[in-house]
Design a protein that fits this description.
This protein is of the alpha+beta class. It has two helices and five strands, in the order E-E-H-H-E-E-E. It starts with a strand and ends in a 5-residue tail after the last strand. The relative contact order is 0.32.
Length: 82
């Protein structure tokens, strides 16, 4: 299935914009992120994403949320400090 990943990560300039990936049916948010990291050689960046907020469409999601074909997964990086 095909999923669009949209990244809103101000502090991670390599993760901006949106990209589509093909993943197996029944994949979770976490599996999609791992697959994306492998494809783009960004495994080290992946360690910074658990502190992010995830949306599928306009609904919040967790790492174990199952994705559907043509879902749009948005990763909102939470910034700390002031």
């Amino acid at each position: 299935m095909r999923v669009r990943l949209r990244f809103l990560c101000v502090d991670l300039p390599d993760l901006t914009g949106s990209r589509e990936i093909d993943i197996s049916g029944g994949a979770t948010v976490e599996q999609a992120l791992v697959e994306f990291a492998k494809i783009h050689d960004m495994e080290d960046t992946l360690n910074k994403l658990p502190e992010s907020m995830f949306l599928i469409g306009k609904h919040t999601a967790r790492l174990d949320t199952e994705l559907q074909d043509k879902d749009e997964l948005t990763v909102l990086r939470i910034l700390h400090g002031g």
